[in-house]
Write a structure and sequence with these properties.
10 strands; alpha/beta; rod-shaped
């Protein structure tokens, strides 16, 4: 084997070994994280209820959902936008934050309406928030989305801390305050089937119907107008005795934009299973959806709502699909490059072999041009030409080249023979 061919084989072997070593290191690393840390809300609140239902669905796929309580939507937002925090996903109530691109957060899906309930005491019917001016009102706790929404809605109606007693209280304290007569009204948020809402709806407290709902939604587009139908609480007792117009925020499932795409798809599946049914306010399949613009929509969510989960995740177990997507597929461009290199090596070797012959073809061509250019050469010139062609022939005989290139060597020798014969013919004429 020639030194050149041996050198090429060594280079190829080194490249292949390096590729194999790199692939082995990559493939031996964990394919994907197995734990998601989610920030929810109060321990018995609506967000905690959602997370508790997500957890067993994710567990089936080998993912542990670590649930962390918070004061609510505002705190969840603060936790998620901190790039150094452990929190990766959480629930944020629409209309409670002012997101920016620097937050690096994304919406996975809008998952549910969050009805806003105003319960009050007294004989008079209250259907406008302006009627609560001068009263004692519970508006939620610090860090909650309810506190922000309550203040905004009351502010539109001219109800402020300057003319009304606005008290920060959690749901249980607000309910007790209404029962004891220490409060005149209180804001609550949550689904009708939540324990606190059931307690309130079966009490002797009155539920406010928002007569100005359409105008308020125009001013506060993050909210929606919904209807709590007559007799939804009890058909037997006809509670409530009429349709009730409510305002509703939207619960958003939000994550850091660094979350792995495979985990986003799993969360979307869980959200679809938990929120996809019909309820008091929405038909079957209304949630989850992407009808929100507060945070950028994740690319995975856009693809999911158009075509479902990726092909591999539909037909393979999650761990295997994520392994293939995360590890093997990233090797495809590298393998394509490696294949191209391996295909190019023989051509490179062939070009190198032929370049060794081209040098002498050039010498022959240069000599031939000189011979044809001189019409009456001297004996000294003819002798010089003979020396040159013999020197070229001697070097051609010393070329070490693989057998498959011997035809090129013989073609070179034929060219040498043609020029040698031409020199002999010129020498014969000059002798005559």
């Amino acid at each position: 084997m020639s030194p050149g061919r041996r050198r090429l084989l060594i280079i190829g072997a080194i490249v292949l070994l390096a590729a194999f070593g790199w692939s082995l290191v990559v493939l031996l690393k964990p394919a994907i994280q197995r734990t998601i840390v989610i920030t929810t809300g109060a321990d018995h609140g609506i967000y905690r209820g959602f997370a508790d239902r997500y957890a067993p669905l994710l567990k089936r796929e080998g993912i542990t959902l670590e649930i962390r309580s918070s004061s609510g939507s505002v705190e969840n937002y603060q936790r998620l936008k901190n790039p150094d925090s452990e929190y990766e996903v959480g629930f944020i109530q629409s209309g409670t934050t002012t997101p920016s691109e620097a937050d690096h957060l994304q919406t996975i899906a809008a998952v549910s309406y969050e009805p806003i309930w105003v319960f009050y005491r007294g004989d008079a019917t209250v259907d406008r928030l302006a009627q609560l001016r001068g009263k004692r009102i519970a508006i939620g706790v610090r860090g909650s989305g309810l506190l922000n929404v309550s203040n905004v809605l009351l502010g539109y109606s001219g109800v402020t801390a300057a003319n009304t007693s606005l008290l920060e209280m959690d749901a249980l304290a607000a309910y007790q305050g209404l029962k004891d007569g220490r409060l005149d009204a209180a804001f609550f948020i949550g689904r009708p089937d939540a324990s606190m809402q059931q307690t309130l709806l079966h009490s002797n407290l009155k539920l406010m119907s928002f007569a100005q709902a359409d105008a308020l939604v125009q001013k506060f587009p993050s909210l929606s107008r919904i209807i709590f139908p007559r007799a939804s609480t009890s058909i037997v007792d006809d509670l409530p005795p009429a349709d009730v117009t409510l305002l509703a925020a939207t619960a958003l499932l939000v994550s850091k934009d660094t979350m792995h795409p495979a985990l986003v798809y799993l969360l979307l599946d869980a959200a679809k299973a938990v929120h996809g049914g019909e309820d008091y306010f929405t038909p079957l399949g209304a949630f989850p959806n992407l009808n929100t613009s507060e945070f950028p929509i994740s690319d995975e969510s856009t693809r999911y709502f158009k075509a479902g989960r990726p092909f591999l995740q539909r037909y393979l177990p999650f761990w295997l699909a994520s392994f293939v997507e995360r590890r093997l597929l990233i090797l495809v461009p590298f393998l394509a490059l490696l294949l191209g290199l391996l295909q190019a090596l023989p051509r490179m070797a062939e070009a190198r072999m032929k370049n060794r012959l081209v040098v002498w073809y050039r010498e022959i061509k240069s000599l031939e041009d000189e011979i044809w250019g001189i019409k009456q050469p001297t004996q000294q010139q003819i002798a010089q030409w003979r020396d040159e062609i013999e020197d070229i022939d001697a070097h051609a005989n010393q070329i070490r080249i693989p057998y498959r290139y011997f035809k090129d060597v013989y073609a070179l020798k034929q060219a040498i023979g043609v020029v040698r014969n031409r020199i002999s013919q010129i020498a014969g004429k000059a002798h005559d």
